[in-house]
Design brief:
mainly alpha; rod-shaped; 96 residues; 2 helices
Amino acid sequence: MKRLLSFTFLLFFSFYSMYAVQQEDITIKELESTVKDKANELAIDDKASLIQNKAIVKRKRHVRSARQIQGIFGHAIKRASHRELIDKRKRIAGNY
């Protein structure tokens, strides 16, 4: 009887672990797509603000090139997408 119970438990645990691994793979793929989507949204928003900032820079006559402004916004996009990734991982792990 003990062997039957232990075998049943082992069988159940192995199937459950395979199911959990499949679920984890799906969530990682969803996570990657969510981060890419968010980065694209931010890039669109930042392009509009980049155009506005170019006009502001020209009006104020600061010596800043478009490349410098793009670098500033590129860094902001990276930070925002990384923050989104960390938040999503915490929610999946149950720490949030």
